[in-house]
Write a structure and sequence with these properties.
4-stranded antiparallel β-sheet; alpha+beta; 2 domains; Endonuclease I-creI
Length: 212
Amino acid sequence: MISPELDNLDLAYETGVHLGDGNIWNDRYVISGSKQNETRYYEEVLSPLVSELYSVEPAIAFQNNSVYLRVYCKELVLFKHNVLGLPLGRKEGLRIPSFVASSPPSSAQVVSGLYDADGSVKIRHDKSGDYPRISFGQKHKQLVADIKGFLGTLGITSTMYRNDYFDPRTRKVATRWFLDVNGFRNFDLFVDKIGTRNPYVDKRLDIVSALR
């Protein structure tokens, strides 16, 4: 395993994906996504990216409706935890990592990875017509607030709000925080300043662009 330089933009992007859909344990790093929508992304983008960044060999696996990227490497887990500051096991208290906080290009790549993992692109309808909405949801309030603040530095306005819902897995009421980026002006800035590497997301962006 190799340890990439902290100013590596691919590292920033992959860290964003980790914040969204990844977890580390004692000797494992796992990312999971939608088998239906993201298999190509995992096979053609994430697996080569992780392999090139860390000089490891990820394994792609499928279970039910999910696709998984798995790496068994203690050194990688220690690098992510001790150097990048990512939590072991259950993710708590997430924020945009400090190692990218002073670099706008790296922060943009973290946000890109997060949106590729957890975001969605929708077409909204109202009386004035159709408009795009790029939406992102997380249970970590401060992480969403960090993203809102960073997008603001790029001139992208957004709306942050709370949603409480019943989680059938835990049989408890859970809270998620959402960030919506609305309208064509913000859409264009987001595509230009943040962008995507996820083929499924890219296809959704093209559909929205065709509305003009």
